[in-house]
Design a protein that fits this description.
Oligomer: single chain
Number of domains: 2
Shape: globular
Radius of gyration: 17 Å
Helix content: 25-40%
Order of helices and strands: HHHHEEEHE
Strand order of the largest sheet: 3-2-1-4
Length: 147
């Protein structure tokens, strides 16, 4: 069963690293050998796309929590175990730490999205000074309207 859970989360999280995958699953589940199972999991897509050589980390010019990116995913379609799922989500990413928060939203209205942005981000982290977003109609009233 652990392999099925790892496979599902790996697909839903868009092929994360083993460290991110382990942290995500350990927040929800306990298994004595979870980290070992995750490290042994081999996704063929990841193996083919994996860059060779050392990674390069880009440094940003801002402090954590000063700048973030926000976007709406509408609709996101996923197919797992012969079942199709479609849903909307709000994503918030701190551009310095790469912290990601994702909230399942139920409609695309500005008020609804603003409420979820507040609950997902502003309740937990300082109000950012700058936001990166597209100019879609759902983003217009989402940002910085609350004091």
């Amino acid at each position: 069963m652990i392999e099925t859970i790892i496979h599902w989360f790996h697909a839903m999280l868009e092929h994360p690293s083993s460290c991110r995958m382990c942290a995500t699953l350990q927040a929800q589940y306990h298994h004595t050998h979870l980290q070992m199972h995750i490290e042994q999991y081999a996704c063929e897509e990841c193996q083919q796309a994996k860059p060779s050589g050392p990674g390069h980390h880009l440094l940003t010019n801002c402090d954590p929590w000063e700048e973030f990116a926000v976007d709406l995913i509408d609709p996101w379609q996923a197919s797992m175990l012969h079942d199709n799922v479609e849903f909307f989500a709000l994503t918030c990413i701190d551009t310095t730490t790469n912290l990601v928060k994702i909230a399942h939203i139920f409609e695309k209205s500005s008020n609804h999205n603003a409420t979820y942005f507040e609950h997902t981000w502003l309740y937990w982290y300082p109000k950012p000074m700058q936001a990166i977003h597209d100019n879609g109609e759902s983003s217009q009233d989402l940002l910085f309207n609350s004091s």
